[in-house]
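User: I need a structural model of Copper amine oxidase N-terminal domain-containing protein from Desulforamulus aquiferis for a docking pre-check later this week. Nothing fancy, just the predicted structure tokens so I can convert them on my end. Input:
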Amino acid sequence: MVKGTGFKRFSAVLVIAFLLTIATPAAMTFAAEDNQNDEEIILVVEDVNEEVNEDVNNEEQVAEEVEATENEEAVEEVDLEEEAAEEAVEEEPVNEEELESNEEENQAVDENSNENSENNDGKLSIYVKGVKISSDVEPFIDSNNRTQVPFRAIGEALGAKVDWVAGLQQVIVSNDESTVVMIIGDKNYYVNSATLQMDTAPIIKDSRTFIPLRALGEALNCEVTWDSETRTVHVE
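Assistant: Understood. Predicted structure tokens for Copper amine oxidase N-terminal domain-containing protein:
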């Protein structure tokens, strides 16, 4: 019985060894095939990546070539336009009469600019019927934004008779039609028999008597206009 058991065990060991001998090469074969398949897959993926990279590089190269071509065409168009403009300038005849006319216009503009610059030096200019009034004292704009002028200079320029009544501090300016009476510091003034009011008053400044120009001019039936750009008053 013991010998029989030992033989059975020995037989079982032989069977197991035989099975292992058969199974191991098969398993190794399967593993090798799996590794080979993985390597083939990796190679296929790498090939696909290379093709994709080549496509991207080709697209970038094509885009660069297109951009370079467009830039060259744009530069050529600009050059052609400049050449055409130069040819037009060269072909256009010179009109001497037109040049002389332009020079005269430019000279007139320069003269007007010089005149305006002289009047824009901060001083006021007074013109009566186109003639500039000269005085040893300058007119000015008072706190009520009204032009004050030396009464004797403006009165005489208007062809009127001018009187100063020191005791009453009155200025009297008269012509053939009207007599105007103004009082220092008083906004009321008198034209013939009428009493009128202005928004400012005559003033004594630096020992000289100034009166509102617009009020006097309109009282003597004159038109008074103001040019803010040249700081000039015109009395017509």
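Before docking, keep this in mind: The first helix runs from residue 2 to 91.
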